[in-house]
Amino acid sequence: MTAPDAARPARRFRTPPAATAILFAAIVGGVLVVASGANPLDAYYQILAGSLSLGALPDTLNWATPLVGMAVAAAIPLRGGMINLGGDGQMAIGGLVAAIVALCLPAPGPLAAIAALLAAALAAGLYAALAAWGETRHGIPMLVSSLLLSYPAIGFCSYIVRFPLRDTATGLPQTQMIPESARLLTIAGPLNVGMLIIVAIAVAAIFLDRRAIVGYELRLRGLNKRFAGYGGVDLEKQAMLAMFSSGAIAGAVGAIIVLGSDFRFIDGALLIPSYTWSGLMAALLANGEPVGTVVAGLFFAALQTGGFAMQRETTIPRVLTLVLQAIVILFLAVRHGLGRRGA
Amino acid sequence: MPVLELEAKGVVKRYGALLANDHVDLAVERGEIHAVMGENGAGKSTLMSILYGLQQPDEGRILLRGAEAHFRSALDAIAAGMGMVHQAFKLFNSLSVWENIVYAREPKSGPFIDRRAARRRVADLARRHRLAVDPDASVGALSVGVRQRIEILKALYREATILILDEPTAVLTPQERDGLFDVMRHLAAEGRTILFVTHKLHEVMAITDRVTVLRDGRVVERLQTKETSPREIIRAMTGRSVSLSVEKGPAQVGAPLLEAIDLTVGRGAKPAVDKASLAVRAGEIVGLAGVAGNGQSELVEALVGLRIADSGGVRVAGKDVTEAGVAERRAAGIAYVPEDRALVGSALAASAADNLAMGFQRAPPVARGFLIDPAATAARARALIAKFGVKIESERAAVGSLSGGNLQKVVVARELAHEAPVLIAEQPTRGLDVGATEFIHRQLIAERDKGRAVLLISAELSEILALSDRILVMYEGRILADMPQAEANEETLGLLMAGRTQAAAA
């Protein structure tokens, strides 16, 4: 059934929903700032200057590296309609394995770093795949198992650095410093090669999503799992592979922090900034679409970095940026939800 | 002078560039059974959604008993005395019959549901309208025919005076269908008005008073059933004359290409499929008849590999595929048109190109190495869209906006493109109009004439009888009968479908 072109109604110009959501969040946040007796324009200026000015940009990118990494890690299963809530545990495993390999492997520096990174990705990937295996073989929902598997992993890593591998020199729950030769090369300021690794991972994820057979099959699974199964996609293998990739990226993020910033595994240090959850929110906002996920991840990283600056420069606590982030998400989620029901 | 119960005047509804309803006028008299007919995509569903308040018209008015009505939602329509029985039932399977019927309008005593009053009212209502149901039965355990009665009772409980029945006979046995017609006549005699959406000509001729025919969103004909003929209605629906029967030559039968040997799905005393054996040979269409829910779906899933059978074996083109997954069985030679084109046979949010590539994504020309070749995928999709006459803007458009017939063409185009020796077609024309049905039927016969083995699963007896060379009947997981088409007729098959082998033999 085709209608003449004359019947086509004029398409109204629509502002992108993300822009509306950010504007709305800025207004609500501004009201909160005014209510607390401060100047909202000053607050927003500090956030912008503290995240996007030339001096602040390296800090933002340094914060964005693990956040975007965790966002991509969350996006991969999400693209196929699955969810990995165990990023914290996988990141901890990756960090610990990287530290152990870098400390113990008698290899020349760069090789030790590469080996540490790969071992971290492998270990965390296998641990994440365990959740997929539990679902396909034993019917344990991945939503539950990926999260629950996270806690013993965190606890185990914590035990290892408190007892067998504790650095006796400092007495703190952390490993010894890894040798300088096994650390990731510095680019400038706080930035190191880890950022380039995450860029490469994100580019690979975007390319595979758009062009590769695995990307096609995962995307179609996300749109209709039964259709993919009917078309001959091996759903069990696919779930394992998606979770392995997700966990491996999370493990790599943990390794990059250990090898590039902390230079040792410090109990809890990987988890305090909540990269996993910021990353998951970024991926959810983009519905697992990798380009959108990266953009959302960068936005959250800028907002959070700007928050630290605002807290330093004004009397407004950085919690404001978390409020802004929450309002953006809520507003976009509402738009999504309503849009879908209308369709 | 008959009283007009419901009128649509100049209703227009657009979806983007698509004009789904183009100044539609509909007038339904009180107490009549009024058929709304049309091919898929003619705008019947859109019109019904507008009448029932599910969608708002872009232009035009709805008049209810002469007064203009504005339904903002189905709740408004229900309050105004409308009731709709959808094709897919909207029931709570885990609740009892009476709970489903009184839902959201429970008789109360204080803050609690007055269960006794509720049960009594449901029983009274069922008796008065001769819709036999057990108020305490659990809906999940009931047959499709009984569930439909519950849907009708639900509408009557809400005091509906206008009933919209959307393709109500698609899932019924001939006997159940006749029962439904009795109920419809009784309701009309009581002064209720019935809008009957259907594709089936003989049903329209049997039960309706008047017919409104839609084509391309416009009303093309208003007919008195008594004064018209099936041929005239078809001409109005399609704009051309269509042959009602299917023409085909004698079967050139070869070796068996699809075999099931004592296939069993499920355990316990009553497995879903109970030691079913069948063989479909090259060059024949084998029809599997049966009321929905008698194990056909499970049997098909076990044949195509979506489910591993608990015992028994499957052979495709001589190869044992009992332990194989879907991909391996497809490679061995199965193409499969699934029962539910929207839930299984396609991804509605994905483009036509993506939908048409499924199952081909791992081999050239769609695949190039580990990548998908977008140009080849698009070219292939365009070729299939043209060959099968799918009405779609472009291969990049999502298939979710297509009408049922066009979506089914996408599914059939993809599966036939496999050129597989075995074709399993499950309810291939369910909910399709005459034109699309005829098209699919021609494709199935062409496959048979190419020497392929076709297994046709259908609840539609006329379809089974028209297409099959051999007919099997499935009842409660077992295959009850295997007969040449020439020995079968609607009555025998109907009795076998109800499990009455004795009566059928007599």
From the structure above, extract its key features.
heterodimer; A: 343 residues; mainly alpha; two-stranded antiparallel ribbon; 2 strands; globular; B: 506 residues; alpha/beta; Rossmann fold; 3 domains; six-stranded mixed beta sheet; 17 helices; 26% strand
Plain-language structure description:
The complex is a heterodimer of chains A (343) and B (506). Chain A has a single domain (38-328), classed as ABC transporter involved in vitamin B12 uptake, BtuC, CATH 1.10.3470. Helix content of chain A is 72%, strand content 1%. Chain A has helices at 17-35, 40-52, 57-79, 87-104, 109-138, 142-162, 193-211, 213-223, 225-230, 235-262, 275-285, 290-313, 319-342, and strands at residues 186-188, 191-192. In chain A, helix 3 (57-79) runs antiparallel to helix 12. The relative contact order of chain A is 0.20. With 506 residues, chain B is α/β, with parallel strands linked by helices. Chain B has three domains: 4-238, Rossmann fold, CATH 3.40.50.300; 255-333 and 420-506, 3-Layer(aba) Sandwich (Rossmann fold); 343-419, no CATH class. Chain B has 17 helices and 24 strands. In chain B, the strands form six sheets. In chain B, strands 6-9-10-3-11-12 form a six-stranded mixed beta sheet, sandwiched between helices. Chain B has a six-stranded mixed beta sheet with strand order 18-21-22-15-23-24, with helices on both faces. In chain B, a hairpin with a 2-residue loop joins strand 11 and strand 12 (218-224). In chain B, helix 12 crosses helix 13 (404-416) and helix 13 runs parallel beside helix 14. The longest helix of chain B is centred in the middle third of the chain and has 16 residues, at 174-189. Classes of the chains: A mainly alpha (343), B alpha/beta (506). Chain A binds chain B through residues 1-3, 5, 7-9, 211-217, 219-220, 223-224, 226-234, and chain B through 14, 16-20, 22, 41-43, 216-217, 304, 306, 325-327, 330, 336, 338, 343-350, 354, 357-359, 361-362, 367, 370-372, 374, 391, 403.
